[in-house]
Amino acid sequence: MAKKSKAGRQEAAERKPAPAVPASPLAKARWAMEAGDVRRARVLAEEAVRSGPEEERAEAQKLLARLGPDPVAILVASLVLLFIAFAAWAALLRAH
Fold this sequence. Notes:
Structural class: mainly alpha
Number of helices: 5
Number of domains: 1
Oligomer: single chain
Largest sheet: none
Shape: elongated
Number of strands: 0
Order of helices and strands: HHHHH
Radius of gyration: 25 Å
């Protein structure tokens, strides 16, 4: 059996275990949100609202509200698209 070098033992000691995946749907939704997976967090929060423990349902509903679409961002994107369409239309009319 080969012995590990001192550096190899230090590296093994410094490694941190991977974080455990939470058990409840709400905890999983929070975990997904922290990982940056908003779509999965929304699905898991919806599951928590439907079938999670009673004490977590209100918290899951709040999380869903935070994960919902941003109306200001949608409005700004719509205005930008409208401006682009108008500019393209104006460019076409100018060409003729």
